[in-house]
Specification:
heterodimer; A: about 220 residues; six-stranded mixed sheet; 7 helices; B: about 375 residues; alpha+beta; Barwin-like endoglucanases; 2 domains; five-stranded antiparallel sheet; 13 helices
Chain lengths: ~220, ~375
């Protein structure tokens, strides 16, 4: 499923004295079945661009197409449906809900589907087992190590079997060993047919042979160099 | 089926969210329950008092006729019973003797009433339970009161009136009419007022109109008017208690407003996460509605149950003195359980509904924003 961005701009605090554009007139195409990494220094607009691509935020101007369907101007209800069915998100700080168990966290995105409980639990356990977390399913999320929390976040992102996995600085809080383990996971997922889009300013990631495409950003624009 | 299952998951999540913030939610539940308890106690007790008064007045005469002189209640001549003439529908008419006596010993007013049907001896009296308590009297004891001529008059207690009627009989002293007349110095041809029993209550008003024409210096008082007066008094007292409770209410309103006016950073972040992973705005609103409903309905039920126990099993110890009256002789009676559907609905509307609406507004604002904006 191709994602195409045309002249996308995102401006914050519009009309105020502190107005600024985090993303300026960006056009690009994310190819399906590939691993694409947005890279650039802090404040270059990676996360904002990723958020707009994943329908978490709307562009101030420009258009975003998902497989030739214009999605940037869809009402909220349709965007929710796209987020639920098409994208899986892994956030920078993983954003697991504390005091909930690993399994409960993983199942959260599937609640609105209203599937039978047994089926839901089977799906969750299958995801956890695939990433070696089967024995952690009843642990509270705040008791997990960084690497475990990240894998739980990946399981949660995959529970609805999305076509595209989006990860924002997924290794920012991990050491190099765990970062390499993450690369292995996304490589496996990509081999299984998932499109991966991530941001990272970690050379270990964006210089990895696993990454198919690297897009450099600088001050909200694509760095042609 | 999917819809039901979805709601089940939302409720599951709601309960787990409530448990996660158990300290805050328990505090809220406690304050909320206390407010419902206080309001419901006042409402239940006042309602019970009204019903008790209505029940006690059931056997009272339909019409009382009082003579008015210069705008004040005066004794009525006995021949007014004849002067009023034949009134169709009136099954019985008789004169009544009653008055007040201030007892400096206990600094209380007694209501003295002639009651020949009790067949009391010349110096025998029957007293209300309030009088008995105030003066420490039992059957057979003597009670000495100073008559209108200043002479001490000693009475023997023949009977203590049944506690069931204590709301109206706490301060009552019944005595023979001859004794009453001699004690207060009232001539034989005078009564305090006249009482008429009407066969068909629908005719009461018509009969009262005729009486006003035939006896222009009198005023008829209807039983239904007395009941309305009781209602007004109890409403007024209920109002006073509500005013006293208003500071607690205000504190709760401020508390609810504080909660309603904004979400904490953590709550916003959670809403953002849920939206980002595929929850619809409606799912989040439904979840928060469930959360508000669980807290407010639990507080309502708990508060109401506690109020019921307080009023009907502990005789409303907290408010009874204010609601029953400020007299020295407080009636002691056990309120009869009485629940009014409209009253419950009113209390529910004024406690549960505003809270739920107040809490849902900021959630709605967050739920309709982009997940990225909410999480930032």
């Amino acid at each position: 499923m191709t994602i195409r961005l045309e002249n996308v701009t995102k401006t914050f605090n519009q009309g105020l004295h502190n107005e600024f554009s985090a993303v300026k007139n960006v056009s690009l195409e994310i190819q399906p079945d590939r691993i694409t990494c947005l890279t650039g220094p802090s404040g270059s607009g990676k996360t904002t661009l990723l958020s707009m691509t994943g329908c978490l935020a709307r562009p101030t101007s420009g258009r975003i197409y998902l497989h030739d369907r214009l999605i940037s101007n869809l009402p909220e209800h349709f965007l929710t449906e796209i987020r639920r069915r098409t994208f899986g998100f892994v956030f920078q700080r993983f954003n697991l809900i504390h005091d909930m168990t690993v399994l409960e966290n993983v199942l959260l995105p599937a609640y609105p589907l209203g599937l039978p409980y047994r089926k839901l639990v089977d799906m969750g356990q299958h995801q956890l087992a695939a990433l070696g977390l089967a024995d952690k399913r009843h642990e509270k999320s705040q008791h997990l190590s960084g690497g475990e929390a990240q894998r739980v976040a990946i399981c949660r992102a995959l529970i609805n079997d999305p076509e595209i996995l989006i990860a924002d600085e997924p290794t920012a809080n991990l050491d190099s060993k765990l970062s390499l383990a993450f690369l292995e996971i996304i490589h496996t997922l990509n081999a299984a047919g998932k499109t991966i889009l991530l941001t990272s300013h970690d050379p270990l990631i964006y210089q990895s042979p696993v990454i198919d495409t690297v897009i450099k950003l600088h001050d909200g624009e694509i760095d042609a160099a | 089926m999917v819809l039901l299952q979805r709601q089940r998951y939302l409720i599951d999540y709601t309960l787990s969210a409530l448990y996660r913030h158990k300290g805050k939610n328990l505090g809220l539940l406690l304050v909320y329950t206390l407010i419902v308890f206080l309001l419901a106690s006042v409402m239940l007790f006042t309602q019970s008092l009204r019903q008790e008064a209505a029940r006690t007045l059931q056997n009272a005469p339909e019409i009382i006729v009082q003579r008015m002189v210069a705008g004040r209640h005066a004794l009525i001549p006995a021949d007014y019973l004849e002067k009023m003439g034949r009134l169709r529908g009136v099954s019985e008419r008789h004169g009544r003797l009653w008055g007040y006596f201030y007892d400096p010993v206990v600094k209380a007013n007694y209501t003295l009433m002639a009651a020949d049907h009790k067949q009391l001896g010349e110096r025998d009296i029957a007293i209300g339970a309030g009088v008995a308590r105030a003066r420490g009297l039992e059957i057979g004891d003597r009670l000495s009161l100073r008559s209108s001529r200043g002479e001490p008059t000693s009475f023997r207690i023949r009977e203590i009136l049944h506690p069931d009627t204590e709301l109206l009989s706490a301060d009552l002293i019944l005595l023979p009419s001859a004794t009453f007349r001699s004690f207060f110095g009232i001539a034989n041809n005078l009564f305090t007022d006249l009482a008429l029993t009407v066969r068909n209550p629908a005719e009461t008003r018509k009969i009262a109109e005729k009486l006003t024409l035939r006896l222009p210096d009198t005023r008829p008082i209807l039983r239904e008017e007395i009941l309305r007066t009781y209602d007004a008094i109890f409403n007024w007292r209920q109002g006073i208690v509500f005013v006293l409770l208003s500071s607690a209410l205000m504190a709760f309103v401020i508390f609810a407003w504080d909660k309603a006016s904004g979400l904490s950073a953590e709550e916003k972040r959670e809403i953002g996460i849920l939206k980002a992973i595929g929850w619809d705005s409606n799912d989040i609103l439904a979840m928060k509605l469930w959360e508000g409903a669980v807290v407010s309905v639990t507080a309502f039920l708990l508060g109401y149950l506690l109020a019921y126990l307080h009023v009907f099993h502990a005789s409303a110890e907290l408010f009874s003195s204010v609601l029953k009256g400020w007299a020295t002789l407080y009636p002691q009676f056990k309120p009869i359980p009485a629940i009014d559907g409209l009253q419950i609905a009113t209390l529910f509307f004024f406690t549960v509904f505003p809270y739920t609406v107040a809490t849902i507004i900021p959630v709605w604002r967050a739920a309709v924003s982009d997940p990225d904006t909410v999480m930032r």
